Description:
The chain is of the alpha+beta class. It is 27% helix and 23% strand.
Amino acid sequence: MSAHEGWQFLCRLFAAGTPVLRAALSPREVALLPHLGRAIQAAVTDQSCVLCPHCALHRAPVFGDGRGGRLCRCPDCGPVPVSPQDGTALRLNEDWLRQKLRLALSIESRDGVDDLGDGVWRLGESRRSPVLLARDSVRLWREPALLERVRVAGSDLRVITPKPRETRGAPFGPGVQWWALEDRFTLYGGGIAFIGLPGEPPAPQPLDPAAAVHGPFSADFRWVTLTDWPHGPIRLTDAQAAVFKALWSFKGEPRTAEQVMQRAGLDSAKPIDVFKVKARDKGKIEAEGALFAYRALVVTQRRAGLYAMPCAAAASSAPA
């Protein structure tokens, strides 16, 4: 796979912002899919219509054929048998994209992503300059107040968008650096790399802050990587990281809730308290991921009121 081809394909998916039917992809695009890993994920689409499997030109309504199968009624081809694969769809994993862009620009992990709505995100600050990611330029042109909302005095604002069809000069005027997603970034080593211009100081290439150091945890316990979690490294809050760090320090030995929370420096009564998902966060990957990690890694003896993290014992007994 060409990294350039793979990146251009991901940029098209991001600009579209909607799932695409696998049947609508070109053979070359289908060949790219196995190489894109977590950047691509399955999507659910309306199965009442499909792209005609015969001509691939029209979306046609689907009906039962009376024998347990399905047919679509294409205006050009007439009735055409439909297989389950004909409705398969996929989409860009946008959480993966935002996380990898943050790493490429050395944005501090403590500086979270802010969703500004309708396809615009504040990724954080790179070299003290705010960074915005937008699905297209039009929203920012129509609502310049969005730029002022995140601007920092004394620093340029950096805006990342897919390339518009026609671009002339600096589309956002003075004080705003515009980076075309397709031109200024590329796939590299399972992640995303920033491409500097000639004479432009390169962006620092940081060590991955999510890299596992203490068993599945990062060096600062702010990230945890689990093979059973399909959305990549899980980012934790300060309180969640403190609980995991405390449990890790006990090297797998069971401890009471009071001992764990005292070591973590928190006032909550039980470790689970800082992992509970609030109603407003139901379904959000960030919140659900932390709870998934807690349930996967922490063993609770409810009657005795004890908590332990077996992976810490395995790590402490591993040969140097």
